[in-house]
User: What shape does this take?
Amino acid sequence: MTAAVRTVNCPTCRKPVVWTEKNAYRPFCSARCRQIDLGAWASEAYRVPTAPPDAALDESDFQPPGLGEGRGF
Assistant: This one.
């Protein structure tokens, strides 16, 4: 019985990519697509969402772990 070959889409160009150990660029289809993605991260085109720096903090943000979780401390 042969193992099923997994195919994914390149995150940059959406071209189908065979997911094998022979593909050194996986999940990308080529070094070019990998570099494009790295450049997007470096230029901050992609961002991980966070709270705004001026977000108001309430009392629960300063409690030690376990407090306010219904344990009666």
Notes: The first helix runs from residue 31 to 42. Strands lie at 7-9, 16-18. Residues 61 and 71 are 17 Å apart (CA to CA).
